[in-house]
Amino acid sequence: MSPIYKVSYVVTGNDHPGTIANVERPPKVGDVVRLGDQSYKVTEVVELIPARGEFHYLHATLAPARS
Amino acid sequence: MDPIEVLKTVELFDGLEPAELGAVAALCRERTYQAGQVITTQGEVGDDLFVVCDGFVEVILSRPPGDQAPRTMVHLGRGQIFGEMALVDHGPRSATVRALVDGAVVMIIHRQDFASLCEANHHLGFVVMRNMAADLSFKLRHRNLANR
Questions:
Q1: Is A4–B74 a contact, with Cβ atoms under 8 angstroms apart?
Q2: Rg of chain B (C-alpha set)
Q3: Taking chain B (148 residues) in consecutive chunks of 10 residues, what is each chunk's mean pLDDT?
């Protein structure tokens, strides 16, 4: 099985409540991710807890992306 | 949507043998919701566990009457579970959950069927309950980070 990245996304700079979702590729600083109808830029990624099996647990901080 | 392929990507079922995954898949019902459609309602009795297969749902917490407006606590995407608290403690739903996008697909597992499966197969029951505790822990860590 391919790695699965369970990511806790927290948005700074607006009232987005944050998102938890599984993704196939780990987010990286500078990436633009789309949550709902808004795009956000990744400003920080940390390992939230150690990986277990194929599951990796990450936390990503996001800021609204400028269009 | 092949339930076994979906369940393989859900942390709750990580560590199950193929036959055990098949037994869980046999309990799953798939349902599709449109944006805004309510899936569970805060305060109601809950008999099901839900797995998000596609799209996003939002978890909304209502406050006491006269207090602030309901607050969206988190959005949950693919591979996430909800409804697990009522599954474990048999209490009322702790929040309202509704679809955030059109075509949000969830798998639904009835509590009693799932409990019977866990009781009949203690390895399956141990793995799922351990993973459920880890998922609740992850949600709590997320909440702590969101509140910084």
A1: no
A2: 15
A3: 88 95 96 97 92 95 78 94 86 93 95 93 96 94 88
